[in-house]
Amino acid sequence: xxxxxxxxxxxxxxxxxxxxxxxxxxxxxxxxxxxxxxxxxxxxxxxxxxxxxxxxxxxxxxxxxxxxxxxxxxxxxxxxxxxxxxxxxxxxxxxxxxxxxxxxxxxxxxxxxxxxxxxxxxxxxxxxxx
Length: 130
Prior knowledge:
130 residues, alpha+beta, 4-stranded mixed beta sheet, globular
């Protein structure tokens, strides 16, 4: 399966979860955008009892993300995710005041578990038990 998307799932602590998720994802996205044509989407995901965030960075004009590019995207994202909350907030505020900063808002997403079972593997398992 060819993919041109880098998906990063994460959780935040505190009361300002959407703001933190948006700050990290948007700062990283804008930094990556300086080198690579990329679009991103931030999701606040509810999956059963679990709640988390997922940011998807989609590369424009490519069919597959190279290992090096994926590592670079994750590295930039991690740099912001590891920042102190006050420093992150200040950096985000300053970046938003610059005219060319792209802001993407988190979207609420409800997902369900996909508990499908492959019939071929089920048949193979039955044959091995004879």
